[in-house]
Amino acid sequence: MKVYIVEHAIGSFAYDEQGKLIDFVLSSKDLGKVVDSLLDNEKGIPLPTTIELIQKIKPEEVVVENEAEIPNLQQLGVKASYEIHNLGSRIFRESLPKIAIETKFASSENDLYSFLYEVSFEYTRRKLRTAASKRDLLAIQAIRAIDDIDKTINLFSERLREWYSIHFPELNKLVEDHELYASIVSKFGHRDEITNTGLDEIGVNKDLSTKILDASKKSIGADITDVDIRSIKMLSDTILELFRIRSELTDYVESVMKEVAPNVTALVGPTLGARLLSLAGSLEDLAKMPASTIQVLGAEKALFRALRKGGKPPKHGVIFQYPAIHTSPRWQRGKIARALAAKLAIAARIDAFSGRFIGDKLNEELKKRIEEIKTKYAQPPPRKPQEQKRKEEERKGKKGGREKRKGRR
Amino acid sequence: MSELVKISKTQFENVFQCEFNDGTVRLCTKNLAPGFSVYGERLFKVEGIEYREWNAFRSKLGGAILKGLKQNPIVKGTKVLYLGAASGTTPSHVSDIVELEGKVYGVEFSPRVVREFLLVAQHRPNLFPILADARFPQYYRTLVEDVDVLYVDIAQPDETDIAIYNAKFFLKNGGYMMMAIKARSIDVTKEPTEIYEMEVNKLKENNFDVIQVIQLDPYDKDHAMVLAKYKGK
Ligand SMILES: C[S@@+](CC[C@H](N)C(=O)[O-])C[C@H]1O[C@@H](n2cnc3c(N)ncnc32)[C@H](O)[C@@H]1O
Prior knowledge:
The complex is a heterodimer. Chain A has three domains: 2-132, Nucleotidyltransferase, domain 5; 137-251, Helix Hairpins (Orthogonal Bundle); 261-377, Orthogonal Bundle (Serum Albumin, Chain A, Domain 1). Chain A has helices at 31-42, 48-57, 70-74, 87-94, 96-102, 109-130, 135-164, 170-174, 178-188, 196-201, 206-218, 226-260, 262-280, 283-288, 291-296, 300-309, 323-326, 330-353, 359-376, 385-395, 399-408; strands at 2-8, 11-15, 21-26, 61-64, 79-82. In chain A, helix 3 links the parallel strand 4 (61-64) and strand 5 (79-82). Chain A has a five-stranded mixed sheet with strand order 3-2-1-4-5, sandwiched between helices. Chain A is extended. Helices cover 67% and strands 6% of the residues of chain A. By secondary structure, chain B is α/β, with parallel strands linked by helices. Chain B folds into two domains: 4-55, Phosphorylase Kinase, domain 1 (2-Layer Sandwich); 61-230, 3-Layer(aba) Sandwich (Rossmann fold), CATH 3.40.50. Chain B contains seven helices and twelve strands. Chain B has helices at 60-66, 89-98, 111-121, 137-140, 159-170, 183-186, 192-205; strands at residues 4-9, 16-20, 25-30, 43-46, 49-54, 79-83, 103-108, 127-131, 147-152, 171-182, 208-215, 223-230. Chain B has a seven-stranded mixed sheet with strand order 8-7-6-9-10-12-11, with helices on both faces. The longest helix of chain B has 14 residues, at 192-205. The relative contact order of chain B is 0.13. Chains A and B meet through helix 1, helix 4, helix 6 and helix 12 of A and helix 3, strand 8, helix 4 and helix 5 of B.
């Protein structure tokens, strides 16, 4: 029996000479595995799903599209030949979404295409990685620039609020978001130019809109001239421009991070990932660190103080920003931080030295571990007498307590 | 800066025309990734919808439309295999036109420009970036499917052969090919028109009906866009 074998990211499919689908093996949804096998296929290695399929249906003869595979297929003991765009592949590629759904690879077209989207990104980044050098340093500078911009935005926003409050003091409390505040100043200038439709255009909801308009009518602020407003607007325009640059840089960091450190990024996201690289100095430096160092990266001050004074060492550095850490009860945080740091150490090594993507697997394992911690340590531990005493001191407002908090940031 | 005064439909689905108060008229498309400009083009909002200016000097498809393309096979829902995606300038407009119902598989082999292309595709769920050599479709066969339109702009001497080879793999019967021909990259000693005719003949010999050959000057000197229909394998 001669079968056409069609190979695709979603699996391998066998068609008979009448063009009937006789059997198939679906690929796993593990991005890293899928991309590995696609890259191997370019070197002539049949997809793992193809090998499984051949072992399952034991055909006498197979027809594939990739000539380079033929010797490897023959080693499996089947006659093999190649024909591009053969009967099988024609049928398959004509109706990919239908087949993906019928074979239950995907639950919907959307499901299929978001998988293919992820696969093509990872496939492309993986190929870029081999051409990359020192790109981690680019991500590091970009994240530092973002941090600088944040500081500047805060500084400028404070100034803007104070300045514009001479004219419209009520706005300061009503709008806490710096970007929205600057947008309002830039768009309207004078408080009596503020309109409902205008606020709607910049995304202010009805409720807040009413409050702002109301306040603008009753404002106790001073009247100022167009010239005054123009100067204030220069500052608000600059703030908005900084926000725009920030969002472009964030995008850029995401793209570079997914290319140079895909596994670290899969675990903690591009921003925190880049901060870790930045604190370590480079991807390679991060890869050389033991998990225990990664865990407290960014809390060096607290760590050295603890070493010097013999206090408690910090449980986490910058990885405190990881949601599962800072949203968990205090007594679970150190354990989660340790679990995360262990995974990060593995991720950084793979990113630095092999470039394979195992982010899905790492995330899965980490999630499981966090669940374990959450069930096992659901209750706070009983307080040790000594700790009790310290807590009391803290309540009385002694210096030690404050310092400890600062170091933990 | 000039301000937008009017936006209107063109004869092609999802391709718009915008007029500015200084009298200039430009093409534009509805932005599938609102807020993001791809190559510095202007964005503007009309009745809650964001449009992106489409610079015909930067995009051969834009140039072809302004130079009298008779028929645009790229519409809402079209699946496109795009060879030579570069940093994503034209692919981004194609992605706008086909909307989320359509798909654009963008093949590009230069790592440097692919990095920029990734930044564009990052905000466009219908744009699939593929770093690969268009000479070897058997490699990216695992990532794509049959398409309604094969768009080719790779500026290689053997571009037409590569295009035909890809059509055999992935172009549906009755599908369309759009190919930008850069005369200079094929043969510097021959007249451009002579070269266009040569390439067109190759297409005819390979089961294509050639519908139109559009010279792209002044948008692109010594370039032409060929629109052809595939009669099947
Ligand atoms: C003229 S540019 C394309 C511009 C793009 N179509 C646009 O309008 O935005 C040609 C691109 O084709 C790419 N290219 C050339 N040969 C290629 C090949 N064999 N496979 C893939 N891409 C190729 C080049 O790297 C270059 O980026």
